[in-house]
Amino acid sequence: MTKFIKPFLIACSVYVLGSSLVFAEVELSKEDTKAKASEVCQSEAKARYGEESVEYVSSKVKWMKAMGGAAVKMKIKPQGKRITKYSCVLQQDQLVKFYKV
Questions:
Q1: Whole-angstrom Cα distance, residue 49 to residue 36?
Q2: Cβ-contact 89, 70 below 8 angstroms
Q3: How far apart are CA 61 and CA 57, in angstroms?
Q4: Distance between CA atoms of 70 and 64, rounded to whole angstroms?
Q5: Cα–Cα distance measured from residue 76 to residue 45, given in angstroms and rounded to the nearest whole number
Q6: Which helix (H) or strand (E) holds 44?
Q7: Which of 88, 100, 99, 95 lies closest to 38 in space, CA to CA?
Q8: What does pTM read for this prediction?
Q9: 19-76 residue pLDDT tens
Q10: Burial 84-99 (b: 16+ CB within 10 A, else e)
């Protein structure tokens, strides 16, 4: 049993250390995240919901400390549906999330 556990633990620890070093290089600073938030959210919304779906993008960008990213308010009209208010969050690790408001 220990012959299996020891190599497994070593492999897991190497994977975690390697992935954390790779992800640490990708993170943006707070200022860079706030500067890129509106254009990244707009392009991501166009990719998800279609080219003509974005109705409005706010010029204000708020820093969301709990989310670790910058939030932009948007109005998006998915295909064949009503206009819906969304809050788009660009996190420091360049992950984009949409939340209905």
A1: 20
A2: yes
A3: 10
A4: 6
A5: 8
A6: helix 30-49
A7: 88
A8: 0.70
A9: 554 554 578 899 999 999 999 999 999 999 998 999 999 999 999 999 889 999 999 9
A10: eebbbbbbbeeebebe
